[in-house]
Design goal:
homopentamer, about 90 residues, mainly beta, OB fold (Dihydrolipoamide Acetyltransferase, E2P), about 5% helix, about 50% strand
Protein backbone atom coordinates (compact mmCIF):
# COMPACT_ATOMS: atom_id res chain seq x y z
CA UNK A 1 0.00 0.00 0.00
CA UNK A 2 1.04 3.58 -0.48
CA UNK A 3 1.41 6.15 2.24
CA UNK A 4 -0.30 9.23 0.78
CA UNK A 5 -1.81 12.55 1.70
CA UNK A 6 -5.21 13.70 0.50
CA UNK A 7 -4.65 17.02 -1.25
CA UNK A 8 -8.00 17.68 -2.88
CA UNK A 9 -11.09 16.35 -4.57
CA UNK A 10 -12.06 15.67 -8.18
CA UNK A 11 -15.45 16.54 -9.69
CA UNK A 12 -16.57 14.49 -12.68
CA UNK A 13 -20.21 14.74 -13.69
CA UNK A 14 -19.96 12.51 -16.74
CA UNK A 15 -18.52 9.17 -15.65
CA UNK A 16 -19.05 5.45 -15.53
CA UNK A 17 -22.44 4.90 -13.82
CA UNK A 18 -20.85 2.60 -11.23
CA UNK A 19 -18.77 5.53 -9.97
CA UNK A 20 -21.68 7.91 -9.41
CA UNK A 21 -21.94 7.43 -5.66
CA UNK A 22 -18.18 7.46 -5.04
CA UNK A 23 -16.11 10.30 -3.61
CA UNK A 24 -13.03 10.90 -5.78
CA UNK A 25 -10.01 12.01 -3.76
CA UNK A 26 -6.84 13.54 -5.18
CA UNK A 27 -3.85 12.06 -3.38
CA UNK A 28 -0.10 12.18 -3.48
CA UNK A 29 2.35 9.62 -2.17
CA UNK A 30 4.41 10.89 0.78
CA UNK A 31 7.43 9.64 2.69
CA UNK A 32 7.16 9.00 6.47
CA UNK A 33 7.89 12.67 7.18
CA UNK A 34 5.09 13.82 4.93
CA UNK A 35 7.24 14.94 2.01
CA UNK A 36 5.59 14.38 -1.37
CA UNK A 37 7.22 11.79 -3.63
CA UNK A 38 5.99 10.70 -7.03
CA UNK A 39 2.98 11.70 -9.09
CA UNK A 40 -0.62 12.47 -8.16
CA UNK A 41 -3.32 9.80 -8.24
CA UNK A 42 -7.08 9.72 -7.79
CA UNK A 43 -8.52 7.24 -5.30
CA UNK A 44 -12.02 6.22 -4.22
CA UNK A 45 -12.77 6.93 -0.57
CA UNK A 46 -13.96 4.04 1.61
CA UNK A 47 -13.14 5.34 5.12
CA UNK A 48 -14.49 8.90 5.07
CA UNK A 49 -11.05 10.47 4.59
CA UNK A 50 -10.65 14.24 4.38
CA UNK A 51 -8.28 16.71 2.77
CA UNK A 52 -4.99 17.00 4.68
CA UNK A 53 -5.13 13.52 6.19
CA UNK A 54 -2.43 10.91 5.68
CA UNK A 55 -3.92 7.68 4.40
CA UNK A 56 -3.21 4.20 3.12
CA UNK A 57 -4.07 3.60 -0.53
CA UNK A 58 -4.43 0.17 -2.07
CA UNK A 59 -3.87 -0.13 -5.83
CA UNK A 60 -4.74 -2.52 -8.63
CA UNK A 61 -7.37 -5.24 -8.53
CA UNK A 62 -7.39 -5.12 -4.72
CA UNK A 63 -8.95 -1.65 -4.88
CA UNK A 64 -12.12 -3.25 -6.20
CA UNK A 65 -12.33 -5.36 -3.05
CA UNK A 66 -11.95 -2.23 -0.93
CA UNK A 67 -14.87 -0.64 -2.66
CA UNK A 68 -16.87 -3.78 -1.99
CA UNK A 69 -18.12 -4.22 -5.51
CA UNK A 70 -16.01 -6.47 -7.63
CA UNK A 71 -17.27 -5.01 -10.90
CA UNK A 72 -16.54 -1.33 -10.24
CA UNK A 73 -13.82 0.02 -12.58
CA UNK A 74 -11.42 1.48 -10.00
CA UNK A 75 -7.71 0.87 -9.44
CA UNK A 76 -7.02 2.87 -6.24
CA UNK A 77 -8.92 3.12 -2.97
CA UNK A 78 -8.28 4.70 0.42
CA UNK A 79 -8.49 1.90 3.00
CA UNK A 80 -7.15 3.54 6.18
CA UNK A 81 -6.50 6.83 7.97
CA UNK A 82 -2.93 6.91 9.28
CA UNK A 83 -2.61 8.04 12.93
CA UNK A 84 1.14 7.62 13.22
CA UNK A 85 4.19 6.33 11.38
CA UNK A 86 6.93 5.02 13.65
CA UNK A 87 10.27 5.06 11.83
CA UNK A 88 13.38 3.40 13.23
CA UNK A 89 16.00 3.90 10.53
CA UNK B 1 -6.91 6.37 -11.26
CA UNK B 2 -4.80 8.77 -13.25
CA UNK B 3 -5.64 12.37 -13.97
CA UNK B 4 -4.83 12.74 -17.67
CA UNK B 5 -5.44 14.91 -20.69
CA UNK B 6 -6.53 13.54 -24.05
CA UNK B 7 -3.94 14.76 -26.56
CA UNK B 8 -4.84 12.82 -29.69
CA UNK B 9 -6.14 9.64 -31.26
CA UNK B 10 -4.52 6.46 -32.53
CA UNK B 11 -5.44 4.73 -35.77
CA UNK B 12 -4.76 0.99 -35.98
CA UNK B 13 -6.40 -0.90 -38.82
CA UNK B 14 -4.83 -4.27 -38.04
CA UNK B 15 -5.64 -5.15 -34.43
CA UNK B 16 -7.21 -7.68 -32.14
CA UNK B 17 -10.79 -8.22 -33.41
CA UNK B 18 -12.21 -7.38 -29.98
CA UNK B 19 -10.79 -3.85 -30.29
CA UNK B 20 -12.39 -3.08 -33.68
CA UNK B 21 -15.28 -1.01 -32.35
CA UNK B 22 -13.21 0.86 -29.75
CA UNK B 23 -11.97 4.43 -29.96
CA UNK B 24 -8.26 4.60 -29.06
CA UNK B 25 -7.31 7.80 -27.28
CA UNK B 26 -3.76 9.07 -26.75
CA UNK B 27 -3.47 10.45 -23.23
CA UNK B 28 -0.89 11.91 -20.94
CA UNK B 29 -0.94 12.07 -17.16
CA UNK B 30 -1.21 15.61 -15.81
CA UNK B 31 -0.90 17.24 -12.40
CA UNK B 32 -3.86 19.21 -10.95
CA UNK B 33 -2.74 22.33 -12.82
CA UNK B 34 -2.71 20.51 -16.13
CA UNK B 35 1.06 20.14 -16.44
CA UNK B 36 2.10 16.92 -18.16
CA UNK B 37 3.95 14.39 -16.01
CA UNK B 38 5.12 10.97 -17.08
CA UNK B 39 4.85 9.11 -20.37
CA UNK B 40 2.09 8.81 -22.93
CA UNK B 41 -0.47 6.00 -22.82
CA UNK B 42 -3.28 4.79 -25.04
CA UNK B 43 -6.70 4.28 -23.44
CA UNK B 44 -10.06 2.99 -24.65
CA UNK B 45 -12.85 5.56 -24.52
CA UNK B 46 -16.02 4.67 -22.57
CA UNK B 47 -17.48 8.13 -21.86
CA UNK B 48 -17.25 9.89 -25.25
CA UNK B 49 -14.17 11.92 -24.28
CA UNK B 50 -12.62 14.37 -26.72
CA UNK B 51 -9.21 15.82 -27.43
CA UNK B 52 -8.23 18.53 -24.92
CA UNK B 53 -10.43 17.22 -22.12
CA UNK B 54 -9.09 16.24 -18.70
CA UNK B 55 -10.18 12.74 -17.80
CA UNK B 56 -9.90 9.91 -15.30
CA UNK B 57 -8.13 6.79 -16.57
CA UNK B 58 -8.38 3.42 -14.87
CA UNK B 59 -5.52 0.96 -15.48
CA UNK B 60 -4.89 -2.76 -15.22
CA UNK B 61 -7.54 -5.46 -14.98
CA UNK B 62 -10.13 -2.89 -13.90
CA UNK B 63 -9.98 -1.35 -17.37
CA UNK B 64 -11.66 -4.47 -18.70
CA UNK B 65 -14.62 -3.85 -16.40
CA UNK B 66 -14.85 -0.28 -17.67
CA UNK B 67 -15.11 -1.51 -21.21
CA UNK B 68 -17.86 -3.86 -20.10
CA UNK B 69 -16.41 -6.97 -21.67
CA UNK B 70 -14.24 -9.01 -19.39
CA UNK B 71 -12.38 -10.69 -22.23
CA UNK B 72 -11.23 -7.60 -24.14
CA UNK B 73 -7.43 -7.23 -24.07
CA UNK B 74 -7.16 -3.65 -22.74
CA UNK B 75 -5.27 -2.24 -19.76
CA UNK B 76 -6.39 1.41 -19.73
CA UNK B 77 -9.83 3.01 -20.10
CA UNK B 78 -11.24 6.52 -19.76
CA UNK B 79 -14.00 6.33 -17.12
CA UNK B 80 -14.79 9.98 -16.42
CA UNK B 81 -14.59 13.54 -17.76
CA UNK B 82 -13.11 15.84 -15.10
CA UNK B 83 -15.04 19.09 -14.55
CA UNK B 84 -12.88 20.45 -11.75
CA UNK B 85 -10.01 19.57 -9.46
CA UNK B 86 -10.14 21.27 -6.07
CA UNK B 87 -6.67 21.38 -4.54
CA UNK B 88 -6.06 22.44 -0.93
CA UNK B 89 -2.33 21.96 -0.45
CA UNK C 1 -1.82 0.42 -23.66
CA UNK C 2 1.66 1.46 -24.60
CA UNK C 3 2.69 2.98 -27.89
CA UNK C 4 5.88 1.10 -28.76
CA UNK C 5 8.21 0.27 -31.62
CA UNK C 6 9.38 -3.24 -32.41
CA UNK C 7 13.18 -3.11 -32.37
CA UNK C 8 14.13 -6.77 -32.55
CA UNK C 9 13.39 -10.35 -31.64
CA UNK C 10 14.36 -12.62 -28.77
CA UNK C 11 15.45 -16.25 -29.17
CA UNK C 12 14.91 -18.54 -26.18
CA UNK C 13 15.19 -22.27 -26.78
CA UNK C 14 14.67 -23.31 -23.19
CA UNK C 15 11.41 -21.82 -21.97
CA UNK C 16 8.01 -22.54 -20.49
CA UNK C 17 6.35 -25.10 -22.81
CA UNK C 18 3.31 -22.86 -23.24
CA UNK C 19 5.54 -20.24 -24.90
CA UNK C 20 7.02 -22.58 -27.52
CA UNK C 21 4.84 -21.48 -30.41
CA UNK C 22 5.00 -17.77 -29.58
CA UNK C 23 7.06 -15.12 -31.35
CA UNK C 24 8.95 -12.99 -28.79
CA UNK C 25 9.34 -9.38 -29.87
CA UNK C 26 11.70 -6.85 -28.33
CA UNK C 27 9.91 -3.52 -28.01
CA UNK C 28 10.49 -0.07 -26.66
CA UNK C 29 7.90 2.50 -25.63
CA UNK C 30 7.87 5.58 -27.88
CA UNK C 31 6.24 9.00 -27.75
CA UNK C 32 3.89 10.08 -30.58
CA UNK C 33 6.87 11.31 -32.65
CA UNK C 34 8.60 7.95 -32.36
CA UNK C 35 11.20 8.95 -29.78
CA UNK C 36 12.09 6.15 -27.39
CA UNK C 37 11.05 6.64 -23.77
CA UNK C 38 11.52 4.19 -20.95
CA UNK C 39 13.04 0.72 -20.84
CA UNK C 40 12.86 -2.23 -23.21
CA UNK C 41 10.25 -4.95 -22.84
CA UNK C 42 9.54 -8.29 -24.49
CA UNK C 43 6.04 -8.89 -25.84
CA UNK C 44 4.25 -11.81 -27.47
CA UNK C 45 3.09 -11.14 -31.02
CA UNK C 46 -0.61 -11.65 -31.84
CA UNK C 47 -1.02 -9.52 -34.98
CA UNK C 48 1.99 -10.52 -37.10
CA UNK C 49 3.98 -7.40 -36.25
CA UNK C 50 7.42 -6.81 -37.74
CA UNK C 51 10.61 -5.03 -36.76
CA UNK C 52 10.36 -1.26 -37.26
CA UNK C 53 6.60 -1.10 -36.88
CA UNK C 54 4.85 1.03 -34.28
CA UNK C 55 2.44 -1.05 -32.25
CA UNK C 56 0.04 -1.12 -29.31
CA UNK C 57 1.13 -3.29 -26.38
CA UNK C 58 -1.21 -4.44 -23.65
CA UNK C 59 0.35 -5.33 -20.29
CA UNK C 60 -0.54 -7.33 -17.21
CA UNK C 61 -3.28 -9.92 -16.91
CA UNK C 62 -4.96 -8.55 -20.05
CA UNK C 63 -2.02 -9.80 -22.12
CA UNK C 64 -3.17 -13.33 -21.43
CA UNK C 65 -6.51 -12.53 -23.06
CA UNK C 66 -4.70 -11.17 -26.10
CA UNK C 67 -2.83 -14.39 -26.50
CA UNK C 68 -6.13 -16.23 -26.25
CA UNK C 69 -5.03 -18.72 -23.66
CA UNK C 70 -5.78 -17.69 -20.13
CA UNK C 71 -3.11 -19.95 -18.65
CA UNK C 72 -0.10 -18.77 -20.66
CA UNK C 73 2.49 -17.02 -18.45
CA UNK C 74 2.84 -13.72 -20.36
CA UNK C 75 2.47 -10.12 -19.20
CA UNK C 76 2.83 -8.17 -22.48
CA UNK C 77 1.29 -8.71 -25.92
CA UNK C 78 1.18 -6.77 -29.18
CA UNK C 79 -2.52 -6.21 -30.01
CA UNK C 80 -2.40 -3.69 -32.85
CA UNK C 81 -0.26 -2.19 -35.62
CA UNK C 82 -0.41 1.60 -35.48
CA UNK C 83 -1.07 3.32 -38.83
CA UNK C 84 -1.15 6.87 -37.51
CA UNK C 85 -1.09 8.93 -34.34
CA UNK C 86 -2.99 12.21 -34.57
CA UNK C 87 -1.71 14.64 -31.95
CA UNK C 88 -3.46 17.92 -31.17
CA UNK C 89 -1.48 19.38 -28.32
CA UNK D 1 9.37 -9.90 -5.43
CA UNK D 2 11.12 -6.94 -3.93
CA UNK D 3 14.10 -7.08 -1.63
CA UNK D 4 13.21 -4.59 1.11
CA UNK D 5 14.09 -3.53 4.62
CA UNK D 6 11.51 -2.98 7.33
CA UNK D 7 12.04 0.56 8.59
CA UNK D 8 9.03 1.11 10.82
CA UNK D 9 5.37 0.49 11.52
CA UNK D 10 2.16 2.28 10.61
CA UNK D 11 -0.72 2.87 13.03
CA UNK D 12 -4.19 3.30 11.53
CA UNK D 13 -7.15 3.07 13.87
CA UNK D 14 -9.81 3.81 11.29
CA UNK D 15 -9.44 1.34 8.44
CA UNK D 16 -11.14 -1.31 6.36
CA UNK D 17 -12.50 -3.90 8.86
CA UNK D 18 -10.68 -6.71 7.07
CA UNK D 19 -7.35 -5.06 7.97
CA UNK D 20 -8.02 -4.79 11.70
CA UNK D 21 -5.96 -7.81 12.74
CA UNK D 22 -3.06 -7.09 10.37
CA UNK D 23 0.35 -5.63 11.27
CA UNK D 24 1.22 -2.78 8.88
CA UNK D 25 4.95 -2.55 8.17
CA UNK D 26 6.71 0.39 6.58
CA UNK D 27 9.28 -0.91 4.11
CA UNK D 28 11.75 0.36 1.60
CA UNK D 29 13.23 -1.45 -1.36
CA UNK D 30 16.97 -2.08 -1.02
CA UNK D 31 19.71 -3.29 -3.34
CA UNK D 32 21.72 -6.44 -2.41
CA UNK D 33 24.09 -4.35 -0.27
CA UNK D 34 21.22 -2.88 1.71
CA UNK D 35 21.20 0.55 0.09
CA UNK D 36 17.72 2.05 -0.19
CA UNK D 37 16.35 2.45 -3.73
CA UNK D 38 12.93 3.75 -4.68
CA UNK D 39 10.00 4.92 -2.57
CA UNK D 40 8.50 3.68 0.68
CA UNK D 41 5.64 1.19 0.74
CA UNK D 42 3.42 -0.32 3.40
CA UNK D 43 3.10 -4.11 3.52
CA UNK D 44 1.09 -6.58 5.58
CA UNK D 45 3.22 -8.90 7.70
CA UNK D 46 2.71 -12.67 7.29
CA UNK D 47 6.01 -14.04 8.67
CA UNK D 48 6.46 -12.10 11.94
CA UNK D 49 9.03 -9.71 10.47
CA UNK D 50 10.61 -7.01 12.61
CA UNK D 51 12.11 -3.57 12.12
CA UNK D 52 15.62 -3.71 10.65
CA UNK D 53 15.17 -7.06 8.93
CA UNK D 54 15.61 -7.57 5.19
CA UNK D 55 12.56 -9.21 3.70
CA UNK D 56 10.86 -10.36 0.51
CA UNK D 57 7.72 -8.44 -0.42
CA UNK D 58 5.17 -9.69 -2.92
CA UNK D 59 3.00 -7.08 -4.66
CA UNK D 60 -0.29 -6.93 -6.51
CA UNK D 61 -3.02 -9.55 -6.48
CA UNK D 62 -0.54 -12.17 -5.20
CA UNK D 63 -0.34 -10.28 -1.90
CA UNK D 64 -3.89 -11.35 -1.20
CA UNK D 65 -2.82 -14.98 -1.46
CA UNK D 66 -0.01 -14.33 0.99
CA UNK D 67 -2.43 -12.98 3.52
CA UNK D 68 -4.53 -16.08 3.02
CA UNK D 69 -7.79 -14.29 2.48
CA UNK D 70 -8.61 -13.61 -1.12
CA UNK D 71 -10.99 -10.79 -0.31
CA UNK D 72 -8.67 -8.63 1.83
CA UNK D 73 -7.87 -5.30 0.13
CA UNK D 74 -4.06 -5.42 0.26
CA UNK D 75 -1.47 -5.08 -2.51
CA UNK D 76 1.81 -5.81 -0.66
CA UNK D 77 2.76 -8.53 1.82
CA UNK D 78 5.98 -9.68 3.47
CA UNK D 79 6.41 -13.36 2.57
CA UNK D 80 9.97 -14.12 3.72
CA UNK D 81 12.83 -13.05 5.99
CA UNK D 82 16.07 -12.84 4.01
CA UNK D 83 19.04 -14.55 5.66
CA UNK D 84 21.57 -13.88 2.91
CA UNK D 85 21.90 -12.52 -0.60
CA UNK D 86 24.66 -14.11 -2.65
CA UNK D 87 25.72 -11.79 -5.47
CA UNK D 88 28.03 -12.90 -8.28
CA UNK D 89 28.23 -9.88 -10.57
CA UNK E 1 8.23 -9.65 -20.06
CA UNK E 2 11.50 -8.24 -18.84
CA UNK E 3 14.90 -9.04 -20.27
CA UNK E 4 17.04 -9.61 -17.16
CA UNK E 5 20.28 -11.12 -15.97
CA UNK E 6 20.54 -13.46 -13.01
CA UNK E 7 23.06 -11.88 -10.65
CA UNK E 8 22.71 -14.00 -7.53
CA UNK E 9 20.50 -16.01 -5.22
CA UNK E 10 18.49 -15.21 -2.11
CA UNK E 11 18.36 -17.39 1.00
CA UNK E 12 15.27 -17.11 3.19
CA UNK E 13 14.75 -19.80 5.80
CA UNK E 14 11.62 -18.32 7.31
CA UNK E 15 9.07 -17.81 4.54
CA UNK E 16 5.58 -18.60 3.31
CA UNK E 17 5.32 -22.43 3.31
CA UNK E 18 4.27 -22.45 -0.34
CA UNK E 19 7.68 -20.98 -1.27
CA UNK E 20 9.74 -23.63 0.52
CA UNK E 21 10.61 -25.67 -2.55
CA UNK E 22 11.30 -22.68 -4.79
CA UNK E 23 14.68 -21.33 -5.88
CA UNK E 24 14.81 -17.55 -5.34
CA UNK E 25 16.90 -15.77 -7.96
CA UNK E 26 18.17 -12.21 -7.73
CA UNK E 27 17.79 -10.55 -11.11
CA UNK E 28 18.29 -7.20 -12.74
CA UNK E 29 16.66 -5.86 -15.88
CA UNK E 30 19.11 -5.35 -18.75
CA UNK E 31 18.97 -3.69 -22.15
CA UNK E 32 19.68 -5.77 -25.31
CA UNK E 33 23.45 -5.19 -24.88
CA UNK E 34 23.38 -6.50 -21.34
CA UNK E 35 23.65 -3.15 -19.57
CA UNK E 36 21.73 -3.05 -16.28
CA UNK E 37 18.71 -0.73 -16.18
CA UNK E 38 16.34 -0.26 -13.27
CA UNK E 39 16.22 -1.87 -9.83
CA UNK E 40 16.84 -5.41 -8.62
CA UNK E 41 14.03 -7.95 -8.29
CA UNK E 42 13.68 -11.45 -6.92
CA UNK E 43 12.09 -14.08 -9.17
CA UNK E 44 11.14 -17.73 -8.78
CA UNK E 45 13.01 -20.07 -11.11
CA UNK E 46 10.96 -22.36 -13.39
CA UNK E 47 13.50 -23.21 -16.12
CA UNK E 48 16.64 -24.10 -14.14
CA UNK E 49 18.32 -20.75 -14.77
CA UNK E 50 21.79 -20.03 -13.42
CA UNK E 51 23.78 -17.01 -12.32
CA UNK E 52 25.10 -15.00 -15.27
CA UNK E 53 22.41 -16.09 -17.69
CA UNK E 54 20.11 -13.67 -19.51
CA UNK E 55 16.49 -14.62 -18.97
CA UNK E 56 12.87 -13.65 -19.54
CA UNK E 57 10.93 -12.71 -16.42
CA UNK E 58 7.15 -12.54 -16.26
CA UNK E 59 5.61 -10.30 -13.60
CA UNK E 60 2.31 -9.91 -11.82
CA UNK E 61 -0.49 -12.46 -11.67
CA UNK E 62 0.98 -14.28 -14.69
CA UNK E 63 3.95 -15.32 -12.56
CA UNK E 64 1.63 -17.59 -10.62
CA UNK E 65 0.78 -19.42 -13.83
CA UNK E 66 4.47 -19.85 -14.57
CA UNK E 67 5.01 -21.49 -11.23
CA UNK E 68 2.10 -23.78 -11.99
CA UNK E 69 0.30 -23.24 -8.73
CA UNK E 70 -2.30 -20.54 -8.83
CA UNK E 71 -2.25 -20.01 -5.08
CA UNK E 72 1.48 -19.41 -4.59
CA UNK E 73 2.20 -15.83 -3.48
CA UNK E 74 4.75 -14.81 -6.14
CA UNK E 75 4.82 -11.88 -8.55
CA UNK E 76 7.89 -12.63 -10.69
CA UNK E 77 9.07 -15.84 -12.38
CA UNK E 78 11.82 -16.77 -14.82
CA UNK E 79 10.10 -18.38 -17.84
CA UNK E 80 12.91 -18.59 -20.41
CA UNK E 81 16.67 -18.63 -20.96
CA UNK E 82 17.62 -16.12 -23.65
CA UNK E 83 19.99 -17.48 -26.32
CA UNK E 84 20.14 -14.36 -28.46
CA UNK E 85 18.63 -10.92 -28.88
CA UNK E 86 18.52 -9.67 -32.46
CA UNK E 87 18.30 -5.88 -32.53
CA UNK E 88 17.60 -3.93 -35.72
CA UNK E 89 17.42 -0.33 -34.60
Amino acid sequence: MLLARIVGTVVATRKDPRLVSSKLLLARAVDPKGKAEGNYLVAIDTVDAGVGETVLIVSGSSARLAVGMKDVPVDAAVVGIVDAVDVAE
